[in-house]
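hi! just following up on the protien thing from before. the input was this:
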Amino acid sequence: MTPEMLEHWGRTARACDGFRWPPGMRDTYRDRTLVLDRPPNEWEFPPDFSDPATLGCLEALLVEGYRGAIVLTKGNGWWSIETDREGGYWDNDDTGSYIEGCVLALKELDR
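and the predicted 3d structure came back as:
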């Protein structure tokens, strides 16, 4: 994934209502890693999803938001995300990357 796409998905995730900066998440500016929980608006830069710990923090937000009812499946060149939560079922069968799928699932929590 290009740096521009990583930044795009980072900014998209940061704009979601369900987004917050859990400890261990890194931003794209000077590789700052969050040690203490802070309000999401304190840092203007997007999360750095090229960092495995930051990607793990995104996964934790999804598990929390969907109360564990989320399935991510990797196919040959595609990812599928399925969720089940109170108020409905959501499925996206054709995302271009794992990061894209996770961010779209986080965005879906806003509905």
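The two ends are 27 Å apart (CA to CA).
The chain has one domain: 3-68+97-108.
cheers
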